[in-house]
Design goal:
Layout: H1 5-20, H2 28-35, H3 39-51, E1 55-58, E2 64-67, H4 76-82, H5 110-126, H6 129-133, H7 152-157
Antiparallel strand pairs: 1-2
Helix pairs in contact: 1-2, 1-3, 1-4
Length: 158
């Protein structure tokens, strides 16, 4: 799966907003400077984030943006989906009853990539802005078996 700059920048900006919006609204120019993101790009992203109900805009002098919900309630998956970033690891499009190949069958690795996409979505849905701020991400990772270790099914077959 490749996450485009749209999704990455939206998450970066929202984490920045969560960190700096305690006392007053945060201007996009401040976020742009701190995160080294184009202001016009941030304006486009925040328009989508506002429509999705993730941020609130404050007009006038000293205006800017605030989180619509607390950082503990705002999930990374919501941010990515709000900027129209699909969380998918497969090249296949929505199949419905039809397959992803020209003959309407599934490609051989379709289920593998589809499940990977589901796992990525589940992980991003389990992470909040507060988790990112508190650096509590590594505690959510599942430890992979070492390269020399046999899986349970391989060990049972031995």
């Amino acid at each position: 799966m490749k996450l485009s700059t749209k999704g990455r920048y939206a998450v970066m900006a929202m984490v920045d907003l969560a960190r700096h919006a305690q006392a007053k609204p945060v201007s996009l120019s401040e976020i742009a400077t701190r995160q080294e993101i184009s202001l016009s790009y941030l304006e486009q992203l925040f328009a989508r984030l506002r429509r999705a109900g993730l941020v609130k805009s404050v007009r006038g002098p000293g205006g800017g943006y605030r989180l619509a919900h607390g950082s503990a309630e705002t999930r990374v998956s919501e941010i990515i989906l709000a900027v129209d970033e699909p969380i998918s690891a497969t090249r296949c499009t929505e199949m419905g009853e039809a397959g992803c190949r020209a003959d309407r069958s599934k490609c051989l690795t379709h289920d593998l990539w589809e499940e990977l996409g589901n796992q990525i979505h589940a992980f991003l849905n389990s992470v909040t802005l507060l988790d990112v701020l508190d650096r509590k991400i590594s505690t959510r990772l599942v430890e992979a078996p070492s390269p020399g270790a046999k899986s349970d099914t391989m060990a049972a077959a031995s």
